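task queued by scheduler; priority normal; single chain, no ligands, no partner chains; default sampling; output format set to structure tokens
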Amino acid sequence: GVAVEALADEAARLAASGATPVYVAVDGKPAGLIAIADTIKPESREAIAQLRALGLDVWMLTGDSQGTAEAIARQVGIAPDRVLAEVLPGEKADKVRALQEEGKTVAMVGDGINDAPALAQADLGIAIGTGTDVAMAASDITLIGGDLSNIVTAIALSRKTVSTIRQGLFWAFAYNVALIPLAMGLLYPFTGIVLNPMIAAGAMALSSVSVV
């Protein structure tokens, strides 16, 4: 019931600078504003740029006001249309679910208790190591420390791991597809070639070595 119109312009200015304005009233009358702001991590902008370089679409999901969220997004390189602001704690998982229903594969990064449902809902939950135990329990990956560039490292490492697994499977199958017919003697009627059991045993060991 306190009229705050006289402070509205100043509140908007603070929000545009990336702070959250909090109105203060004394005896039912507006007394002033307190500006609260989290310090942006120095590596945030670079980490987001690297995530985008990996082909990922980066969104911001926050309970802050729209103006504050957009100001922070500008500073770290997130497009305004990729900002989901004024989200209540219980709604974060719903926002993740909505993105999934659009056909997106969603990785959620969070560190707080209210991030836990969204971390569990996401296809990949990534908890910041300096966050709460609840967030870490709900996530699939927990980063050591609070450096956001570790997100880039984790995703790049995961992609490299999958690539290596696929390479191993390819060479294992290719090797066996090529030599199993020879071991079965399918070429014998045409060429007279037969595979000595000792050579076959050596070739089997060699296939494991070549995949490694």
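post-processing summary
- The first helix runs from residue 5 to 16.
- The chain has a mean pLDDT of 87.
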